[in-house]
Amino acid sequence: MYDLIEHAESLGLGVQFDDLGARHAHIRDDDVVVINDARSYLLQRAALAHECGHRAHRHVHAVGARETRQEWQADEYAANLLFGPGEYARAEGMYGPDIALLARELGVPARLVLAWRRAWSANLSRALLN
């Protein structure tokens, strides 16, 4: 987790832990990411990486389709922080395309595996068109 905290700090974010009830994390107005300390370590890491994605993309609060796009971007950023193509390929070589098994092997929530796949597919499509 320390490397993610350092990454958050490099983006200008502080990091604190507190019980947030149903929420995993959020960025306060004073640029502090609050991580729900009642969640598992896996979910804390994913939440911090996700919030770093919002900061890196300079997201502001949005609703509707824009909010969905921002959440996808933050998840893709988080996935790339937490694992890379080599790790993904090894996991897929061991378990095939099963999302739940890949997520368990990579130590991330399933939504980050889906986000990584979505980004990889989009990048591949762009490369083929160019």
From TrEMBL:
Any Pfam family hit: Peptidase_M78
Source organism per UniProt: Oerskovia enterophila
Residue ranges occupied by any IrrE N-terminal-like domain in the UniProt entry: 8-111
Gene3D superfamilies reported for this sequence: 1.10.10.2910
Protein name in the entry: IrrE N-terminal-like domain-containing protein
